[in-house]
Amino acid sequence: MQITSRFTIAVHIITCIHCFQDDYKVTSNFIAGSTGVNPVIIRGVLSQLKAAGLIHVRQGASGITLAKPLEEITFFDVYEAVDSVKDEGLFHFHENPNPDCPVGKNIHFALDRRLAQVQTAMEQELRQIRLSDVAADVQAKIEAEKK
Amino acid sequence: MQITSRFTIAVHIITCIHCFQDDYKVTSNFIAGSTGVNPVIIRGVLSQLKAAGLIHVRQGASGITLAKPLEEITFFDVYEAVDSVKDEGLFHFHENPNPDCPVGKNIHFALDRRLAQVQTAMEQELRQIRLSDVAADVQAKIEAEKK
DNA sequence: TTACTTGTAATGTGTTATATTACAACCATA
DNA sequence: TATGGTTGTAATATAACACATTACAAGTAA
Q1: Residue B35: its chain A contacts at CB < 8 A?
Q2: Domain containing A139: what range?
Q3: Per the structure, how many domains does chain B have?
Q4: Does the beta carbon of A141 lie under 8 angstroms from any beta carbon of chain B?
Q5: Considering only Cβ atoms within 10 Å of each terminal Cβ, which end of chain B, N or C, has fewer?
């Protein structure tokens, strides 16, 4: 089971805003064109990124902009904004272990801590990666192709 | 989006086999009772665990047993056996970034490496945890309750 | 006022996880 | 060897979910 494409879409969106906000009016349709994703989906992700304080969007007014410098946005910020499993946890536990079985009764106790440990390791790695890293790579590639 | 319950089911199964293989004939129905999961699903997971060389199952013959000491089975072994994203990767990438857009054209190049890095961090943590750790906790709880 | 944009509800479609029924293949033992 | 129990698996149902799409209200800027 994979992590939703909303995450890569969101990273793509932020990179787009960064690269184009000075030269174009960045709109949901513009982004839909770059990502190949339906504009309504894009607007949904934009709302989540806005709620997380990462971008500025205003109803009616075109021109989406960044709310923070790229160096201050990590993969974790984006992940948390669009694909968070805060309520549920990364791992889906089978719902009905048998409380009358010694193993079924105690399996949650034995597992929960360790599942959380794995989730934390993943989230820590997400925190290491900044959106500025991604944008730098994209722009380096663009420059390289100009020649 | 979460990791399938097949993973926690599989860990539960292995713990069950370990705890009960000396005293009971462990069957798919027995495990279904402990996990609260349908026997057919259990048999599917059992097949995957068998294919991964973690357990012994023989058609017709009851009595499922472990193929390795618990100390030599990690969360990663189980994860790989039942819920692997080997072909796809942990992150689902949006399918149609626009090759005519400078960002759309290069977003894969800029992201793939980092997504793999996050996936690797998670898998490394899975490798740190042994099934014997889980079984020890379960059995300690059982002992504690006897008193 | 007009043209454009965001926000969002409603609906459709395809995919996937799990449950369930049914049955063939197989094994162990009386 | 006949029988009862077990695994393997196909077929089907159901629910949840991701994403696409249409439609339109609400808002903005010229």
Answers
A1: 94, 96-98, 104
A2: 5-146
A3: 1
A4: yes
A5: C
